[in-house]
Amino acid sequence: MKYLYIGDAIVTSLEPTSLAHALRSAENMLSIEKARSKLPVTGKYVYLDHAAAGPLPDSVVEAVRASTAQKLYGDVFWDYWERTAETTRRAIAKLINARIGEVALIPNTSEGLGIVGNGLEYKLGENIVTSNLEFTSNSFVWQAVCKRHRMEFRAVPARGESLELGDFRTVVDKKTRLVAISHVQFSNGFKVDMKELCDVAHERGAYVVTDAVQSVGQMPVDVKHLDVDFLACSGYKWLLSPIATGFLYVRKDLIDTVYPTLVGYRSAGVPDGFTLRTFRPAKSARRYEHGQLNFPGFAGMLEAVRFLTSYGIQHVETRIRKLTDRILEGVSRIKNASILSSADPSHRSGIVKLSCRNPELVKKNLRRRGIITSVRAGGLRVSPHFYNTEEEIDHLLESLKRNVSTTAG
Fold first, then answer.
1. How many angstroms separate the Cα of 64 from the Cα of each of 56, 145, 245?
2. Domains, the chain, ranges and CATH?
3. The pTM is what?
């Protein structure tokens, strides 16, 4: 019998299905190696901290540099910058399956949440519902809104490291104006079933806004399928984009419902007229853009989106799941360490939270070995991206095994 060797895969010439699988695996590995060659971080670190900040590909840095250099000539390239920003808007809209007019370019998630929070109207006695696992940006804004409008702020308590849909069914009622929840929780990677949660909220007449900074870029996010009303996201994490780049999605039929409260020349329907006139907001989500955009940053964001989509977001998710599977399996064999993140496949993401003694010391020791991780909510947080390798995960596991044994004593 004849054998064909492709990397580590061995298949017989009489197994067409296996052959096709092996060819796809080899193609994916070649794509990963190509991606790694475009990420300078791979030459210096085992970078497993994308939930904190993603490294920049070469093409992103070059796009930022080129756009910045054009400013040497004043406003000569202004029209080009505007066209590039619009191309970025289109790329983001396609990425999340939104209409172009539903996307505003903003600096970060916090501003997007604030635009929604401050742009809606409220009635005395209404409430806003979130959870106690949220990052502060998705908590403080709603506390402030509730205080200003004399509403009730409700935080659904987690059950361990998980959020139960049944608890939201109990807490969300007919007086709930808004449910604000992260698609993926920052501390432990718990992925919320947004479609089910939106059904619960909409049945009770509430809107849903999601902080998607920990999901967009590591998994497919389809705003139409999820049925979210608003979605805010920064680009500097899983999207591998520059700092101070992000976007806000507002469902088309709700654009007139969220009035722009921080406005400037870009917010107007006709932004080019600079003389005194009546303010009429743009009919699209551009109404939420007020001053000059971070043109170099959004030029970089465009390249980052192209970089990720060239590999395929579905493939990105599959690859990350394979790497996190390896982490889960490896940690299960390490004494004095355990997994805190949900093991339910429907609630998993690229973020894995580990329990170990003195996680801050473990993080520092890992960094000395060139392995970059974080500590969040009392646990060691590991967040690989698609370009990480099995060898890097094994290096993490071996280093973790040595370190947790040392710190446990």
1. 11, 36, 12
2. 35-56+313-408 (3.90.1150.10), 60-309 (3.40.640.10)
3. 0.91
